[in-house]
Task: structure prediction
Amino acid sequence: MIFNGPIVWLLRQQQGIEEQSFFEIDLKGIFEESREKLTLLLHPIAPHMTEEIWEIIGNKGYVSLAAWPSYDEKLLTSENDFKWKLMNNIIEDINNIKLVMKQEKLDNISIIIADEWKFKFYNILMSLIDETRNQGEILKKIMKESDLKPHGKSIGQITAKILKNVGKYSKISLSSEEESQFFQEIKPILNKKYQCDIEVLNEKETKEKKASQALPGRPAIIIS
Result:
């Protein structure tokens, strides 16, 4: 259902609504505004339920007579959509690793951002995939980039992996610096959720073997 994401987000925020917000913003105000707008959006498909909710949250009159919520077009960008999915994906990945490890209490989570060359390679690869799915042709064009030649073996392996399931990989990516900055910005959210130390590293900054698995938009995760 298209509203599952916003509803889950609202429920998550409600859990800590009375506490200090992550970024020193009015989390309670954002929650209440989001709750009201979501009630308006849900009204056409759940009219009776939303009329009751409208009254419970303290609004007067009928939700059916209220103005349709407005939105800020400047915020509806592909980059913001990508970042939203990136945050939710990292949370889902951490939860899955916790489940496999059967470890409830965590001490540290390391988020390892892919090396810079992978971002250049990834952008070239995704543009070439629009032209052909032939791995040989793709690698031939990529290897024309002199700074990528030393990484030829890894590029071949990653290309084969992506071509097997292209739909899993986003055509949009940030730069290495932007992705690192994004995860630095959401560190307080992850710290609050998992109650442990969060570190954001570049692939070059660690000797962990798993770091080599990091890709643009898909950082490696090490939990202890």
Notes: Residues 16-24 have pLDDT under 50 and may be disordered.
